Amino acid sequence: MEFPQNVFKRRLIENDGLLLGLFVGLGGATSAELLAGTGYDWLLIDGEHGPNDLRSILDQLRAVAAQPVSPVVRVVDHDPAKIKQLLDIGAQTLLVPMVESAEQARALVRATRYPPEGIRGVGSALARAAQWNGIPNYLQQANAQICLILQVESQAGVDALDDILAVDGVDAVFIGPSDLAASMGYLGQSGHPEVKAAVDAALARITHHGVAAGVFALDPNTARAYCAHGVRFAAIGVDTVLLRQGAVRLLAQFKVAQDDQT
């Protein structure tokens, strides 16, 4: 049984074009499977804000496995025990929210690696990631396939960005404009000029360090502007938003057509 390669990490390293992604927050395997076949490069299975637990994330990883899309799992916090469980069920790419210091970054790198590089607990006989010891030399190969993305989304994180970027083992940094706006005093105003300027500057610094830069933006024009700073991966939509907007739009269109007939 061959070791599963982390296509998302490889594409980031090779700078294989702009990788477009979608946040998946509905928490269901069926919706994740449906979205996996729509052409996005990656799907973010959201364990931070979405109604997910370990089993629902496992179900979604299984649901998208046969599709040409890379799953990224956002963890709920920095707890090494929870990170270990997500890695054991087969997540290879993790997005960790609210990183604000190099110390946190180093701890997260260690949480995702087996010794001697880290502290990930060894339980491959119980791990789907190792196919329950069906993958030869899993323990020796696993570290190289882990992709760790740190989400910087506060003023404190931006202030510490250069130190965070210097930490060995950080594969990418993802900027979250919404929480950054809140920390800057612009709650609910991620499109504020000062917030956009801060995001632009952060993305430029990440790219300058040679680390893969990522960003979240629902507005297409804003997303394109951010991507001009060398962004390698961008989340441009959320499943819940798309579903609600589509439902509202359909109802409005039907009512307009009905009114025209009366």
Tell me what the structure shows.
- The structure is a single chain.
- The chain is α/β, with parallel strands linked by helices and 262 residues long.
- The protein has a single domain, classed as TIM Barrel, CATH 3.20.20.60.
- It contains 12 helices and 8 strands.
- The protein has an 8-stranded parallel β-barrel, surrounded by 7 helices.
- The longest helix has 23 residues.
- It is globular, with a radius of gyration of 19 Å.
- The termini are far apart.
- The mean pLDDT is 96.
Q: Ends: how far apart?
A: 65 Å
CATH topology: TIM Barrel
Q: So what's the overall shape?
A: globular
Helix content: 40-55%
How many helices? The count is 12
Number of domains: 1
Query: How many β-strands, per DSSP?
Result: 8
Largest beta sheet: what is the strand line-up?
1-2-3-4-5-6-7-8
Overall SS class: alpha/beta
By CATH, the architecture is named Alpha-Beta Barrel
Q: What CATH first level would be assigned?
A: Alpha Beta
Biggest β-sheet strands, sense, barrel: 8 strands, parallel, barrel
| Mean residue pLDDT | 96
Helix and strand element order: HEHEHEHEHHEHHEHHEHEH
Rg calc = 19 Å
CATH superfamily: Phosphoenolpyruvate-binding domains
